[in-house]
Amino acid sequence: MTESGPQQGTVVLDTTVATTDEMGALGARIAAVLRAGDLVVLTGPLGAGKTTLTRGLGAALGARGQVSSPTFVLARTHPTTTGPDLVHVDAYRLSDPVELDDLDLDWDASIVVVEWGRGFVDGISDDVLDVEIVRATGADGVDDAEGDPDDVPDEPRRVIVTATGSRWADVSI
Q1: Beta bridge partners of 111
Q2: How far apart are CA 124 and CA 73, in angstroms?
Q3: Res. 44: pLDDT tops 50
């Protein structure tokens, strides 16, 4: 990173995560650098581990309540014991970025994590932490017995974390 910080898409981490436990641990590692006003965008196919990563974030932040996919409610706010609330958003069912604005989220006072957020959060912040999770070729996203596509059996995933904006200057994950 340069002294002024990443301007457009500086990869700050490119790693392989082998298990769901490791995905949760990566979430905790990312949580260690987050503060109020941060926007994290999660991208990956069904079953990639977006919610598992968010659970790790929530656990590390001391989020109250179970962190689960907010697919049907679109957004869940989890008060934390350590600082700003964790707001977990699922943009999968949204058809237009205006619908995200209609959720009336507290972007400045919270840590906001948006699953399926690419293309929906443009313009909300100049400082974005983008986490892309890539499943192995041939992975089918089959749901587990409880129906949560992010709780599929362990398989390696590549995780690429890209930082955009001056907020991420001198921040390492």
Answers
A1: 86
A2: 21
A3: yes
